[in-house]
Amino acid sequence: MLPQNRPPTHPGEMLLKEFLEPLGLTQTELARHLNWPYARLNEIIKGKRGITAASALDLGEALQTGPEFWLNLQRDWDLWHSEKKHHHVRPLPKIVEHLAAV
What we know:
The chain is an all-alpha fold.
């Protein structure tokens, strides 16, 4: 369930606070290990870039979390922010009729 009063934790913040800092790793060290440009990792950590499937695979393997961990964090972040801007759409009448008949 998504938090209601605050945004979910961005994957970059999780990466920094729960992995890099406790492990004593620098962004440069992790970027080199992943064979990523430093800017790519830094933009994720600063919340300026999201986690892609490819990023999730790399992070999941390197940190032994599995890619789903990173994709779920990104999904929750994206969904929470989208819900704040979303204009609700009425259900299609035919869907309502169909569900009532089932």
